[in-house]
Amino acid sequence: MKLLRIKAIAKKELVQIWRDPLSLAMAFLMPVMLLFIFGYAITLDVNNLKTIVYDLDRSSLSRQLITAFKESGCFTVVGNIQEQKEIDQYLDSGKAFVAVSIPKNFSEHIRTGKETSLQIIVDGSDSNTATIALGYVSAITERFSQRINGGRITPLIDPRARVWYNPELKSRNFIIPGLIAVIMAVITALLTSLTIAREWERGTMEQLIATPIKTRELILGKLIPYFFIGFIDVIFSVLLAVFIFEVPLRGSPLLLMTLSSIFLFGGLSLGILISIAAKSQLVASQIAMIATFLPAFLLSGFMYSISNMPKPLRIFTLAIPARYFVTILKGIFLKGSTLKLLMFETMLLSAFGLFVFAVANKKFKKKVA
After folding, report:
1. CA–CA separation, 46 vs 171, rounded Å?
2. Which of 118, 148, 178 is the last residue of a domain?
C-alpha cells in the first residue's frame, strides 16, 4: 500500500467536495442545524404547565397556596374559574393541563390542624408529563404545609436523596451528548455513502479502475477527507454543547476526541460499504438514513433505556455502534469517565470499524460489470 496513491485519491476527493457546495453545506451546516433544532426541541423537563384554579375558600391561605404554585416555575395559572363545570371545558379543549380545586373549608381546617383535601385534576393523555406534574404538586403542597405549621412535620421516614452526575436533573445535560452521537452517526454514513456511487454515476469509476491503485488505497483515500470533515463537526458540536447548551464536560477532551475518531472511522466505513453496494447516490443516501438514523435514535439508549426493551431488541442493539458512542459521550461529559471505564465500548467500536472496512474492501471489485 503506497501513501502516494492514497494522497492522490484524497486530493481528488477534496477537490470534488470543494466543487460541490451541497456536500459542503451538508457536511458543516447540517450537524450544527440539527444540534440546535433537536437540542432546543427535545426536552424531558416539565415546566409552565397551564393550570386553572377553582378556589372555593377565597382566603389569604388559599391565595398563598396559589402563589406557591405560580412561584414554583412549574405551573402557569391561566385562569380562575367560578364553576366546577368549567374544569371540563378547559381540560377538554387543551387550554389547561392541570386543575387545582381548593375546598371551601380549606383555611379553617389548616388553622385548626385538621387534615384537608386538595383536588388535583391532571390531563392524563400525556402520562409521563402527568406523573411528573403530580410529583411537583406533592412537593409544593408538602413545602406549603411545613411553612404554615412552622416546619412541625415529623415523617416516619426522612429520605435524603442525592443525585450524582446531573444534580439539577436537567434533561439537556444527557440529551445533548446522546444527540451528538445520533447526528454524527447519520452525517458520517450519509457523506461517504455518495462517494463511490458518484463515481459510477459520473462515469469516472472506469478511469480509477484503470489505474494501478489498490482497493484499500482507494477506500482510504476516499475516507480521509471526510474523516477530517467529521472531526471538525465533532469539535463544533462539543463546543456548542459546552458553551451554548452549558453541558458540563467533566472528562478529558483529548479522550473524547480520540474515541470520537474511532467512531468516525466506523461510520465512514459503513457509508463506503453502502455506496459500494448501492452504486446509486439516491439509493445509497436512503439506505444510509434508514440504517443509521432510526437505530441510533431509537435503539442506542439516547431516548429510551435499553434495559426496558424486550430481550430480542436488547440483543439487536449490540450491533448498533451509536449505542457505545452514546455511553462514551455521556460518560466523558457527565461522569468524567476514563479510558479504563470505557474500554469495553472502545474495543467494540474499534472492532466494528475494522470489520466494516474489511467488508467494504472485499466487496469492492476493480472491474466493470
Report:
1. 10
2. 148
pLDDT exceeds cutoff 90 at 227: yes
How far apart are the C-alpha atoms of 280 and 274, rounded to whole Å? 10
The full length of the chain comes to 369
Domain CATH number, residue 63: 3.40.1710.10
pLDDT of residue 150: 63
Determine the average pLDDT of the residues in 182-198: 87
| Residues sharing a CB contact under 8 Å with residue 44, sequence separation 6 or more, in sequence order | 128, 171, 175
- pLDDT bin (cut points 50, 70, 90) of residue 155 is very low
Q: Provide the phi-psi class of 365: left if phi over 0, else alpha when psi is between -120 and 50, else beta.
A: beta
Give how far the C-alpha of residue 188 lies from the chain's centroid of Cα atoms, to the nearest Å. 17
Q: Which residues, other chains included, contact 304 with Cβ-Cβ below 8 Å and sequence gap of 6+?
A: 298
The domain tally of the chain equals 2
161 is a domain residue:
no
Is residue 153 in a domain? no
Phi/psi at 102 (5° precision): -100, 120
Please give the average per-residue pLDDT across 301-317, as a whole number.
85
